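Predict the 3D structure for this chain.
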Amino acid sequence: MTRLEAEVRRVLGFMRSEAGARWTFRAALVLAVGVYVFVGRHQWFTRDDWASLVTREAAHRTKGLGNFLFKPQDGHWMTVPVLLYDTTRRVFGLGSYWPFLIPCLAAHVAAVLLVRVLCVRYRVSAWTTTLLCSMLLVFGSGWENLVFAIQITYNFSLVAFLAQLVLTDHDGRVDRRDYIGSALALIGVMSSGFGPIFMVGIFVVLVLRRRWKALLVALVPQALAYAWWYLAWALDDVSNVPGGNKSQVPRFLVRGIGATFDALTAFPGLGAVAIVATLAVALTRRFGDRAQSMFVALAGTVVFMFAAIGFERVGFGTEIAASSRYLHISAILLAPVFGLAVDQLARIAREARWAGLCVLCAAIGVNVATLVERSTYWATLAAGERRTFELIAGSDLIAQADPNRFVFLDSPDVNIASIAYLVDEGALTPQVPVTPGDVQLVRSSLGLPPAP
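Done. Predicted structure below.
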């Protein structure tokens, strides 16, 4: 054997090892940061961003601190993200989107790292864990929760839930891990409407473990906090969600779960196979009672999530079950169980597991492409809004318009009157409309008749 052949064998042996898988994931983390910089470089405030930066700030001035902190937004309790947005605005202003986007991305990475902890803990093989978590780092199918900064709401709740699962995942008496998990869960429940959904997951895992005191520590504080908020602030909140036909909730549930596995496998037709395999892993006792309780809790949380969202939002149609903001959460929660299902392909044949790893590699590429494509689309929409607002701010026609008029239906928190505020905050730089097209754009946006 030549020296070169020996060196190649040594490198290949290292790459096949657990250490090689760990170093590959570290490299994937570095590369993911590069992807984040690329897809985030042109993002800007839009849609629900303005609800926290404009409408809620106005409520702070006119209706007081309580309304600012606790008023629901689309049914969500958002105290923690509201405080984060307000602090970020005060410290950095609105001249750049990055101070708002970076915490959202950081929370996403934290969620993936917690998934990796669960994969390692429940003996998903090193390379399956690496490829699966690398895909989740650049999970383009969940693009909204990566490039839309206000989705920090969902990401905070998801991280809090995963952290509580990791911390309470032990036997024996209640200790500081349980109390820390309970404190983190309070942050999660005050971040989005997913708090009650994630309570179900914690309930399932601790009931199956028969850790009754830990169950009280984990659930009572967040349940009491949510009950207070709901009764004090959300009970009388008027919902704009159409009721819809509740008989479509099962179809909504199936659509969401199917879309999740289609995203994880990337190949049409493999999603259904992956669902069956993952369900089999979740229900089997082969890996022990402890593993089964965790897997049932994760899978059960996803099922309950889509059922609950469907019951609330099926009026918008069953297709919204495949929205990226939901797929991001469901894919991350199902990842440990799905990873172990991929490893079980080795029971069929060694080559079958290699095929599963190849599918994960392909899914990484597909999700990167999806992330780039969808982030470009999102940035283009935001840039169009921004340019229109800036042309309005720079025109001499703004005084002729109704100050309460909304320029964009998808961004109903920015009216004509609030444009001056956004200029003062540095979010907009007024541009004088010069071309006839720019003038016409301004006039139509302001609801004015075309120029003669």
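The longest helix spans residues 350-394.
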